[in-house]
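Sample intake sheet
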Amino acid sequence: MLTIESINQYYGGSHILRDVSLTVPAGACTVLLGRNGVGKSTTLKTIMGLVHPQQGKVLLEGQPVTSLPAHKLARLGIAYVPEDRRIFRLLTVMENLRTGLDRHGVTDARKQELLDKVFAYFPVLAERRSQAGGTLSGGEQQMLAIARAMMLEPKIILLDEPTEGLMPRMVSQIREIIDVLHSERVAVLLVEQNVPLTLETSRRIYIIEKGVVRHHAPAAELRADDAPIHQYMGV
């Protein structure tokens, strides 16, 4: 589904990503795990075309998309939920969803189907459909950001730190959302520091440190032997 090959990224004179490569299979959850400031979010921004790599390439279904702008990548099926969610705080829940829904070629009937599906998955959003996005709780805003991404009918969703700052109950709901995406055959590239969540939800985990992928393995292997996680995460 998605492959990045030997990505090198710089901010000014700082070498942020060093030959980062990873693969996200169709319909699977793949995790990029690491501490703060090691290049996880930069990897997602590079995939999404928000920053352009100095070297390396991004492939979607085998086709190079490295130089494409973010809006064209969204049309090709890549959705992005940033760390700070970026919902429109003054718009209602419904208006936020329509930013992903009102696009060329989507019939009114299909729009209603997508809304019905999202409201079935996120009943709280249905209850608050006329409420301003900025008045929702942190967990509800995260649900709205993911639901808005689902309106695009993406092939893959890039999720950046979706559990950051959330209560344990809301973290559990984020896990359920990832299960929903899996049931919809939507691939997920999840950036996280929450080790238990990543071990539960993913097929493969990449561990990044100082801009370098130090280790990668199937999640089942890391559940059986978590020494690499202790080595690079210090937990």
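Comment: The CA atoms of residues 125 and 195 lie 28 Å apart. The beta strands are 2-11, 14-24, 29-33, 55-60, 63-64, 78-81, 156-160, 187-192, 204-209, 212-218.
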